[in-house]
TrEMBL record:
GO molecular function, one term: glycerate kinase activity
Lineage: Bacteria, Bacillati, Actinomycetota, Actinomycetes, Kitasatosporales
Tagged with keyword Kinase: yes
NCBIfam families listed in its UniProt record: glycerate kinase
GO biological process, one term: organic acid phosphorylation
Keywords: Kinase, Transferase
Similarity annotation: Belongs to the glycerate kinase type-1 family.
PANTHER family: GLYCERATE KINASE
Domain of life according to the entry: Bacteria
Name of the protein in its database record: Glycerate kinase
Amino acid sequence: MADAAKTDPARGGARTARVLIAADKFKGSLTAVEVAEHVTAGLRRVVPDVGVTAVPVADGGDGTVAAALAAGFTRHEARVTGPTGAPVTAAFALRGDGTAVVEMAEASGLQHLPAGVFAPLTAGTYGTGELLLAALDAGAASIVLGVGGSATTDGGAGMLTALGARFLDAGGEPLAPGGGPLRELATADLSGLDPRLARTHVVLASDVDNPLTGPTGAAAVYGPQKGASAADVAALDAALAHFAAVLGSAVGPEAATYAAAPGAGAAGGIGYGALVGLGAEFRPGIEVLLDVLGFAPALARATLVITGEGSLDRQTLHGKAPAGVAAAARAAGVEVVAVCGRLTLPPEALDAAGIRRAYALTDLEPDPARCMAEAGPLLERAAERLARDFLV
């Protein structure tokens, strides 16, 4: 991380130009750290001694642990159960003050499924619970649970099972993994949850605020992305509703309250499991990560913020990292520009989000395949343009 200073000619030498790069990954092409590296290289071709601070960011989905590691957290690994039962190696991040960042996609994400093979009814979150246990064993006193990119729609039942809960069918047998078997749930018992959870502050960090069930719930909105057919979606939605109803007998009326709460439907309903079982506090993922990653002190020193992600589109405006970065910067009175792979937002939407201008790689290379394959060099060229527009 570099942090130098330069007189800004555009301001008549009156102020020091300090650039803060706070961008998310370009999914499929560059990590958030690599985005910052390429942007820095491009800027310095035009303004060699420009001051740059990099704070790679994420919104709670895949890339969240990598962002924490870039901010100085320590990497830890654990061997856990993947979404279809095969063992996988998953990482979490831990800081000296006991703050852990756990990314459920590390244990239960789509990347752990064979290419093109989905398991919408049977994929489970047991490994995420194991990863939380590993964080507790490593000394975590507070946990940021970033959710997104999941292969699962089990309401967090697998996660809670790994943490000590019991979910039994009418014959008293443990349920099989996945969201489909939840329709067979007869009794739920959360009394065996690891006692350390009661004294651990858990934050559910997500970029979506869907409820557990219904037309905007976990199965209806996100099930098709995980290979669920229309029949599967209906079955999963009914199973999740049954799950919440049975939990009502175990934890009381708050089970229904949590099912309707924002974030309950995140990542196949693992948000619900975190709310009802772990006492988690739901917060927008980018808001949480900006706090954890030390964004505010870096912003206080910046005169220009560069944010971005692979695609700046309508979804960006609903809780994605660039929107959160831009909102924080605008509140501090710092100008924001963005870099991206592709741009589908009109100028007025960018302006409303607090982004002065966006530089898309597709403006330099319209072929999407080449754009992704050559994302690093193209990003450096885009950063050169940005530097000429805003730093000289």
